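hey
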């Protein structure tokens, strides 16, 4: 089976349905719109690897292979990613895969932001006092203001 997904940025999520809205393209393939926050191709490739995919990345195109399913992610001229899934996949599984990738992408973004905060804190006169990962996987950082900044 073959399914194409249009990955709509969260900024446009109010336009997209909360769940996949299926339709068919001119070739008869099922096309779904799925909300996503994926923009950065490096983080997307890392998120795909986190879901167990074998990943090959190129300019504005990423291919991910799981057991029995291949996804080709392409960024259109409007910056929106589209994913075409084929193999052992139906509409429900395609949406499940993309949601799993989106969750992994969120974790990648969180890690990148944390890394940037840790790296930039000293230049801002801050010293990391403690770091706690909560039950819901959110991270609480406590910074102390340096002595020279008071």
């Amino acid at each position: 089976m073959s399914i194409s997904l249009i990955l709509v940025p969260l900024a446009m999520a109010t336009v997209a349905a909360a769940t996949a809205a299926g339709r068919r393209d001119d070739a008869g393939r099922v096309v779904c719109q799925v909300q996503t926050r994926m923009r950065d191709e490096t983080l997307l490739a890392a998120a795909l690897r986190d879901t167990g995919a074998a990943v090959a990345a190129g300019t504005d195109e990423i291919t991910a292979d799981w057991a029995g399913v291949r996804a080709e992610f392409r960024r259109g001229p409007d910056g929106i990613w589209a994913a075409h899934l084929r193999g052992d996949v139906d509409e429900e599984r395609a949406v499940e895969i993309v949601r799993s990738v989106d969750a992994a992408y969120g974790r990648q973004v969180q890690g990148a932001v944390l890394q940037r905060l840790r790296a930039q804190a000293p230049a801002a006169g801050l010293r990391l006092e403690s770091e706690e990962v909560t039950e819901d996987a959110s991270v609480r950082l406590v910074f102390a203001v340096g002595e020279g900044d008071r």
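The mean pLDDT is 77. The helical segments are 41-50, 91-120.
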